[in-house]
Amino acid sequence: MKKLKVHHEKQYLMWEDGTPFFYLGDTAWELFHRLNREEADEYLSLRAAQGFHVIQAAALAELDGIYTGNAYGDKPLPLCSGKVCLPGTQGGAFPEMEDCEAYWRHVDWIVHRAAELGMFIGMLPCWGDKWNKKWGCGPEIFKDPGSAYDYGAWIGERYSREWNIIWILGGDRPVENEEQESVTDAMAAGIRSRDTEHLMTFHPCGASCSTDFLRDKSYIDFNCCQSGHGLEGYESWKFIRKMQEEEEKPCLDLEPRYESHPACFQPEYGVFWGEREVRQNGYWNLLQGACGCVYGNHAVWCFCRKKDQGHLKTWREGLLEKGAGQMRYMEKLRLARPFFELRPAPELVEQEEWCGQYISAARGDTYAFLYTPYGQEIKAHLEKMGEGPVLCSWFDPEDGTVKKKEIWPPCPVALRPPDGGRDWIAVLDQMRAKI
Question: 4-335 adopts what CATH topology?
């Protein structure tokens, strides 16, 4: 079985043979619940063509996924008098799942189709309202460690032999007390009792990090934040830095601003995040040292079929929005230079302390990347890269091409992108480096 591992320096993910793995993910939380197989194939095939490697989806979905069933009407868990038959709800042992096999065969089919297309499923065993109904549909099924462990063991066993699984605990909810922490620990332990091969992480609520709730947990292989869709997490790179400072593990922004999402969840403002905001979070995080990038579209994650005030597009229209096609260029940039060398390099630039104007900088041994989010001038300290001239190539994040090249002496310089008003990446190479 092909296998992902954590790099020995605990910064990035890699394949077992040492090849870098760039986590390029798409959020499709309602995939198992809302799409039939023909639609799922349509979705997966297009995302594979767009270069995505991980599809994030919840096995027990958020939007009334327990009672309404999937696209075929199949339900994921047995019901007794309209309630889920699990410990803590009916007081019995974890039930046999034969009556729900049709639902899980559909999940199996999607997992296998993703594998055929070379993609992972970032599998949430359940959405967070199933163990902390702070908001949402619920029901709050997993109220005690026993039920969480048994379900974790069941789903862990079912997918333990599939190469393309990454486990994602949590599901957009905070861990607020010891009981919820014990439920999360137990679900992880249940999965690990059957599956020790696949990586595991935690998807927290907005503007928070997995290290806020589950720091020093051995079952967390890489940490994740959700910078989210409001202003609290606008400068998402700060969350990446926070996780790096708190724990020596790879880290990732599992849910940054979605394309076409109403800003601050308020469609009445008339402002919807677009491709520019998607790229900003992606490159800010990337150059802070994130182990990849995750994209989301507000019409796609819930597979919206009818437009409304908060959803300006259907899911099929959302699939083709510009930001989704531009995510692959982040991976192109990262793989163009030695992958495991890259580290944050704030010493290379001078910052202006204005929200949204942050110029992110990272470097390897003989190269550096500088990201200007609005095309503003970059005051760069090229003398800190070493002796000899520096070649500056301007990488266009809209189409992945290089628009202009310049040569500068190793001294403080003002770098100006080909045109202002939008984002650019200055790719710096010492002239002794291979170009």
Answer: TIM Barrel (3.20.20)
Cα–Cα distances in angstroms (integers) from residue 148 to residues 191, 212, 226, in the given order = 10, 21, 23
Measured CA to CA, the distance from residue 145 to residue 228 in angstroms comes to 29
φ/ψ of residue 293, rounded to 5: -150, 140
Polymer length of the chain: 435
Which pLDDT tens digits describe the chain residue by residue (435 residues)? 789 999 998 899 999 999 999 999 999 999 999 999 999 999 999 999 999 999 999 999 999 999 999 999 999 998 765 667 664 444 444 566 888 999 999 999 999 999 999 999 999 999 999 999 999 999 999 999 999 999 999 999 999 999 999 999 999 999 999 999 999 999 999 999 999 999 999 999 999 999 999 999 999 999 999 999 999 999 999 999 999 999 999 999 999 999 999 999 999 999 999 999 999 999 999 999 999 999 999 999 999 999 999 999 999 999 999 999 999 999 999 999 999 999 999 999 999 888 899 999 999 999 999 999 999 999 999 999 999 999 999 999 999 999 999 999 999 999 999 988 899 999 999 987 444
DSSP 353: -
160 in Cβ contact with 192 (< 8 Å): no
Domain ranges of the chain: 4-335, 339-430
Rounded distance, CA 366 to CA 433, Å?
6
Rg (alpha carbons) of the chain, rounded to whole number: 22
Class of CATH domain 339-430: mainly beta
Residue position matching structure tokens 């597009």: 313
Q: Residue 189 has which token pair? A: 């332990």
